[in-house]
Structure formats: structure tokens, C-alpha cells
Amino acid sequence: MEPLQPTAAQSALAELGDELDRIAGAVAAGNHDLRALGFWRVVGRIKRDQVAVATYADQVAMIDTHVFRSAVRTRVRPWIGLAALLLVAAAGIAAVVAASVLSGMWAGAALVAAGVAWSIGWHVPAHAFVGWLAGIRSTDVSLGGPPPPRPGLKTDYGTYLRAEPALRVWFHASGAIATKLAPFVALALWPATNAPGWAAWILLAVGIVQIATDIAFSRNSSDWKKVARERAVARDIGERWRRV
């Protein structure tokens, strides 16, 4: 009797496991260049196969978290980082109150400061809130990225992989949307303050520049690139189901 041969799906699943074992060994040996190791290519394949997600999500998370924490030193536990950023957002509220009490240059500066504070303070909490709704958990809040350094939320990649691709799309979009809304919210409050007209123009300019920057650059990096990536994953999974 001939031995049973693995199916194509079983062979592909085993191949992914072998690749992750190879990458984990390289990372343990000190090679943290995940792109060169082919890690993200493997992760892309895993995302499109729910059996692979169930099998390898935790191993992917272990590799990803280890490399991140080895490279990023300026990081804190999520609740500490989120609390600090919510305090920044609260300072924005206090700035609006100040803009309604003060007058002249100081009122204008306070209103502009509110828009800036909300742009900074809303981004990561928005990611965390939508992630919580989607079942995506986080491991760290860090400070880094291309200059100027900015706060970022590090996801637990195991929970990220288990979330629905459509929810991952909204997870990535949420922070970008919150940041872009912030100066316009402050602008909408301008009539209720004593801020001069130039403060409104500055807020409008900040909002437009942020949107223009997203259009020009963020499709190739940052949140909107990830939105496009996860939309492609959702589309590929949908097409696979339709073929079945």
C-alpha cells in the first residue's frame, strides 16, 4: 500500500513553517533584517490562509516582537503611552478654554496649540480604540520613525493576524483620520474663542498640508500604505472564496 501523500495545501503549510523556523534561527543568531530574510513575504502568504494564521500567528508575533524590542529602546507599556497621549489631548481642550478667555496673540497661539495637541494626542489612541474593537492588542507605545520622531503603537502581531482584514484596514486608517481631523475640529471651534483670524488660517493651512502630505507620501509609507496592503489581502481572500 502506497503511503499517503500530503495535499498541496498541507505541503504549502509545512513550507511556511519551515520558512518561519529558518527566519527564527537567523533572528536568534543576530540577523534582524526581516525584509532580507523574507519574513514579510511569508507573513503576506500567511494572511491569505486562515489555517496558516491559526497555525503560525503566535510564532510570527514572537519573531516580530523580538526584533522590534531589540531595535527600539524608547518605548513604554501601552497603558503608559496611551495615558500620556490622552493627557496631551486633554491639554488641547484646556488650550481651547484658554483661547476663549485670553485675547489677541495669546488666544490665537492657544487655539493653534489645541489643533497641534490633538493631531499628536489623538493618533495612537484612535489606533488603540479601533484595534480593541477589532480584537487587535498592542505590546508597546514607542517614540521614533523618520524625523521628527512621533509616537507609534506596536501591535501584537498574533492578534493582528487573527483580526478580519477589513477590520485591519480600519485599524490603520483610524489614526491617520484622527490626525487629519484634529486641526479642522480646532478650526470649527474658532468662532467660540477670542482667537484672531490668523489662527484660523494657520489651522486651515496645517490641515491642508497634512492632507497633501498624505496624498504625496503616505501611499508609499505609513498608515495609508498599510490600508492599501490590507485591502489587497481582503480582496485576495474574497476572490479565493468565490473560486471555491
Estimated structural class? mainly alpha
Spatial arrangement of strands, main beta sheet: 1-2-3
Low-confidence stretches: none
In sequence order, what are the helices and strands, one letter per element?
Answer: HHHHEHHHEEHHHH
Helix content: over 70%
Descriptive account of the structure:
The mean pLDDT is 92. The chain is mainly alpha-helical. A hairpin with a 5-residue loop joins strand 2 (138-144) and strand 3 (150-155). The longest helix is centred in the middle third of the chain and has 24 residues, at 78-101. It has a 3-stranded antiparallel β-sheet, sandwiched between helices. 75% of the residues lie in helices and 6% in strands. Helix 7 packs antiparallel against helix 9 (165-188) and helix 9 (165-188) packs antiparallel against helix 11.
Descriptive key words:
three-stranded antiparallel beta sheet; mainly alpha; 11 helices; 244 residues
Task: Describe the structure concisely.
This protein has 244 residues and is mostly helical. It has helices at 8-28, 34-37, 39-47, 50-71, 78-101, 104-121, 123-134, 157-162, 165-188, 197-218, 222-243, and strands at 75-76, 138-144, 150-155. Helix 3 packs antiparallel against helix 4 (50-71), helix 6 runs parallel beside helix 10 (197-218) and helix 9 (165-188) runs antiparallel to helix 10.
